[in-house]
UniProtKB/TrEMBL annotation:
InterPro entries: FabA_FabZ, HotDog_dom_sf. Its EC number is 4.2.1.59. This is 3-hydroxyacyl-[acyl-carrier-protein] dehydratase, FabZ form. Residues 156-186 are annotated as: Disordered. It is an enzyme of class 4 (lyase). The keyword Repressor does not apply. Keywords: Lyase. Residues 176-186 have a biased composition (Polar residues). It comes from the Bacteria. Pfam families: FabA. One of its GO terms (molecular function) is (3R)-hydroxyacyl-[acyl-carrier-protein] dehydratase activity. SUPFAM superfamilies: Thioesterase/thiol ester dehydrase-isomerase (SSF54637).
């Protein structure tokens, strides 16, 4: 099973930072077991929300140069309050260091102005073709799919390198942003 723990990207400054949100719904199937009478977002999935946001920042920063962006290391992970259904976790990730293969970031999840989760993450990226040249077409397919997914995740506003969106509603869509991203994937 694959969990998408970024519902919207509300702001991004390539090479610097990203702000994204995860709105927790009671419909999320893992909540049935975590916990049956007290449903909350599992800590490991809070960390995954930070990781997925960091991966989007890396992809956007390098204009999708690599098909694979994964968590290599999580340091100084701290948890605060619970995230319950109906609440929105706001994630902010800032790049600290980037050497072309590894990117170290400081990531934080906030709920009502209070830190819910924070960590220092090291993200690694590569193309499958670097390990197996026959995978070059798969790399291209993954990059194309990631661009399409980004077009769905971007909130109202403009593409990176522009002014921050004026609309602060994390679920507002933007046809022009989606069209801009889609044109790059063609």
């Amino acid at each position: 099973m694959r969990f998408s723990l970024v519902d919207r990207i509300i702001d991004v400054k390539p090479g610097k930072e990203i702000t994204a949100v995860k709105a927790l719904s009671l419909c999320e199937e893992y909540l049935a077991d975590h916990f049956p009478n007290f449903p909350v977002l599992p800590g490991v999935l809070m960390l995954e929300a930070l990781t997925q946001s960091a991966a989007w920042l890396v992809r956007i920063t390098e204009d999708f140069a690599h098909s694979i962006v994964v968590l290599k290391e999580a340091k100084r992970v701290r948890f605060g309050q619970f995230v319950e259904p109906g609440q929105v976790l706001q994630v902010r990730v800032e790049i600290l260091r980037d050497d072309g293969r590894l990117t170290e970031v400081q990531a934080e999840g906030m709920l009502n102005g209070k830190t819910t989760v924070s960590a220092r993450l090291v993200m690694e990226r590569y193309n499958l073709a670097e390990r197996d040249p026959t995978c070059a077409n798969l790399d291209d397919s993954v990059k194309r799919d990631m661009r399409k997914l980004l077009s769905l995740l971007l909130a109202g506003g403009k593409m990176p390198n522009s002014e921050p969106p004026k609309n602060t509603d994390p679920f507002a869509g933007s046809r022009s942003v989606a069209q801009s991203v889609m044109s790059k994937s063609s």
